[in-house]
Amino acid sequence: MKLTTLMLGLCSASLLAVAAHAESITIATVNNGDMIRMQKLTDDFTSKNPDIELNWVTLEENVLRERVTTDIATKGGQYDVMTIGTYEVPIWAKQNWLLPLDNLGDNYDAADIIPAIAGGLSVDGKLYAAPFYGESSFVMYRKDLMEKAGLTMPDAPTWEFIGEAARKMTDRDNDINGICLRGKAGWGENMAFLTAMSNSFGARWFDEEWKPQFDQPEWKETLDTYVKLMNDAGPSGASSNGFNENLALFQQGKCGMWIDATVAASFVSNPQDSTVADKVGYALAPDTGLGKRGNWLWAWSLAIPAGTQKADAAQKFVAWATSKDYLELVAEKEGWANVPPGTRTSLYENPKYQEAAPFAKMTLDSINAADPTKPTVKPVPYVGVQFVAIPEFQGLGTTVGQLFSAALAGQMSVDDALKQAQDAATATMTEGGYIQ
Question: What is the pLDDT of residues 186-240, one digit of tens each?
Fold first, then answer.
């Protein structure tokens, strides 16, 4: 009895010692489905790392961007791991705001990251963020409604076809909208979609001299097409809809088509969440015949701010969440179709994934079709497909997004929205010293 009591006492003391020395790291992330799933699976991490506790701050996309940007710029130190995107990584790394990820472990296999994705997260050959999932954008559509409309979706549709199909598929009496597109204001919300769309119309944010281009006919055609299409075939209140809102509408059977992130494919095809899971088809983002499609390139990635005092623990978590083993863990728990897509070459070579994910090839083709160095038809001085990789873009993109959202809501004309966008961009670029 005395020996048992002594052993119990020693075990209790050991547990208390571990708890006392446990290092707590705070992770800021976005409230998208893949990140919510990750939080549910973190017992796997903590069982392997009992000396590390995880605290989560989960936020809506626009709020997340605002909070982490403010924190890292002011050296606030609230977060040890941040979920950031392809836009922030090169800018913040050059400011020395991020730590290079050079301690992810011998088994991490960084060379397996898809080159297009790794390139957007690296500066001078060093990886500054590890991709949790990568994406482009494409068309998700209801095969049954397309057939009912008497049409066949091509693998590579034009905007003209999308417009025709959306209008034919619209059935207001049965609450079916021909198309659902982002309308919520934000540089990473409606402007991600509209900038990618504008590329296919030959539009540019800036010419080679950094002069804003919203007064040019290509932007007029882009925004006219978008607003008319949404008025004719989109849902009511579309100016408030972002990724998550449109996902819910599509899963409820209220959208004939949805052009958005390739990562959504696993959600719309999951019968546990989607009422139309067995009716979904996929196609490349539309074009106008000018040689560019309206698809973007993005990765939600995990990065470590330079101000953290817990870099080693943070790197252990980043390595776990973005590893091949994590993909295997999700496959075991949720099925191969639900693993985070778009990050690793080996995933797309895996027969189990190919079989489980009918959208796999279209996703990879879309990712590879996007070229951040030549995003549109004419030459530009910037890098980025659905964004412009300069610090000023975050504020300017949101301002323009608010104007275009107002045009969609009918609060101003397309012409007024474009004129105010041109004025705002000119003021921003003049203040930033890009133009005189």
Answer: 999 999 999 999 999 999 999 999 999 999 999 999 999 999 999 999 999 999 9
Residue 362 lies in a domain: no
- Place 21 in a pLDDT band, splitting at 50, 70 and 90: low
Least confident span in 123-127, 131-135, 158-162, 376-380: 123-127
The yes-or-no verdict on residue 118 having pLDDT over 50 is: yes
Q: What would the mean pLDDT of 108-113 be, rounded to a whole number? A: 95
CATH of the domain at 101: 3.40.190.10
- Residue-number span of the structural domain to which 210 is assigned: 137-296+372-431
- Indicate if the pLDDT at residue 22 is higher than 70: yes
In a domain, 9, yes or no: no
One-letter-per-residue 3-state SS of the chain: CHHHHHHHHHHHHHHHHHHHHCEEEEEEEECCHHHHHHHHCCHHHHHHCCCEEEEEEEECHHHHHHHHHHHHHCCCCCCCEEEECCCHHHHHHHCCCECCCCCCCCCCCHHHECHHHHHHCEECCEECCEEEEEECEEEEEEHHHHHHCCCCCCCCCEHHHHHHHHHHHCEHHHCEEEEECCCCCCCCCHHHHHHHHHHHCCCCCECCCCCECCCCHHHHHHHHHHHHHHHHHCCCCHHHCCHHHHHHHHHCCCEEEEEEEHHHHHHHCCCCCCCCHHHEEEEECCECCCCCECCCCEEEEEECECCCCCHHHHHHHHHHHCCHHHHHHHHHHHCHHHCCCCCEHHHHCCHHHHHHCCCHHHHHHHHHHCCCCCCCCCCCCCCCCCCCCCCCHHHHHHHHHHHHHHHHCCCCCHHHHHHHHHHHHHHHHHHCCCCC
